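Regression check, nicotinamide-adenine-dinucleotide case 495:
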Amino acid sequence: MTEHITTVAGVAVDTRHWIGGERVASVETFTDVSPIDASTLGEISRGTATEAAAAVAAARAAFPAWAATSRAERARILHAIADGVDKRIEDLANVETLDNGALLRSHRRGVMPRVAHNFRFFADWLLKLEHEAFTTHTSGSAAGRGHTNHVSWDPAGPCVLITPWNAPLMLATWKVAPALAAGNTVILKPAEWSPLTASLLADIAAEAGLPAGVLNVVQGYGAEVGNSLVSHPDVRRISFTGSVPTAQHIARAAAANLTPLSLELGGKSPLLVFADADLDLAVDLAVEQYDNAGQVCLAATRLLVEETVSDEFTRRFVEKATRLRQGDPRDEATDLGPNIHPRQLEKIDGIVRRALEDGARAVIGGERKDGLYYEPTLLTDVAQDSEIVQEEIFGPVLTLQTFGDEEEAVRLANDTRFGLAATLVTGDHERAERVTARLVAGTVWVNCFFVRDLRAPFGGSRHSGVGREGGTWSFDFYCDVKNTVTAPNGWHNHG
Ligand code: NAD
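Current build output:
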């Protein structure tokens, strides 16, 4: 082991930043710890305003050439990155699991293949990105008749991408891939609790032939290097996934430069179960909300069940949920790994304790276990305006409330400050349409959950976010969209 390389699950990971095609160390470091067993994974470079400025300068210098690179060539390099990810799926999965404690089997078979797909998808989307030209037939002035309008997507410049720890490489590459495809250069700042796979991505991108400075990775704390990045006047876009308070901070910093923002934030999403639902399906979908130990922004943590079926639903839910296995996330048989950090566990436990003191009843769970594990928990007898119903917990904690009719279901579903997603389970197609139309949510799943097609818009309403990403929406955000209006016979003077 050299000074700046740490070996994690047998994989060599560089602990320094990646700036302008070179590894750069900071004077200070921070310790990266595994949530599985509190072992030290590495001493990671702790970026400051100096590294932030260097990364933005590198991204700025690399921008003109990358923006001028043909779409075909950009797409070819993104495909090469996807191939590089595919070759290293085992490495990435093993490192990510040690770093953030999520299941190895899902990293191996679900998440990392999707990371490769993110690059392929946006490379291919770039190649067919087109807006049909149209002709202006009516206008206030006669001169407006017969003019053609042509829409194009111009690369915007250096983009700062800031991401959380709950699905580190997956969420980072939802941003990195479209930002690069669009012809932008990137400064990625991964979360300090899970910094490692971003460093491996830098290696993979360099091996794939991405020119120096096009992708930069800066490590460190949000309040330090993160703050310097989002405050930098040369940054043309900021895309952030994380919590509401951080988003508010970033929005204030970005306001000084009017830097356009995309914010993917938290949620408190409902799962509505109507009496006409397939109850087994409803229970399967409800138990799925414990995935990733509840650390999923989209998780439907509020179960809203029609009164007439709530006893039967609860009985079947308990039967299934109590069979979940908690343990080492590297074990194939494990369903729930640890939560990420002692601070997070404190937060989860604090919210549950206060709810119990206020009269909530734990149907299952409600206790911490050894290490960073928290029992899968279901609480009932909770008030709509209570903290446990209103605030995002980000742990394996669900609440169950009942409703009498559709009207009440919709009212409860919409009654938080969030609007990220909603899931409804019903056998009635017309009901699904009626209810969906009234739900405030960026994504509604009907009789399913967590299906994410990259062509679709993704984002949240209210405090769950600003803007949408996915397919053309990503290019709209990462580009300066331009409309060129050409006169019908504008060329006759020029021979
Ligand atoms: P967080 O807001 O604490 O941190 C997210 C990132 O922001 C980290 O990289 C952090 O270093 C950085 N950061 C912190 N302060 C900063 C500052 N002042 N300036 C710039 N950067 C700063 O969030 P978290 O705890 O890492 O993630 C959990 C949150 O993310 C939850 O609220 C969850 O719902 C949300 N999330 C949302 C989505 C989505 O797509 N909507 C997906 C996953 C997670």
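Comparison notes: The pocket of nicotinamide-adenine-dinucleotide is lined by residues 162-166, 171, 189, 191-192, 221-223, 226-227, 230, 241-243, 246, 249-250, 264-267, 297, 392, 394, 420, 460, 465 (CB under 6 Å). The chain has a mean pLDDT of 96. No diff flagged against the previous build.
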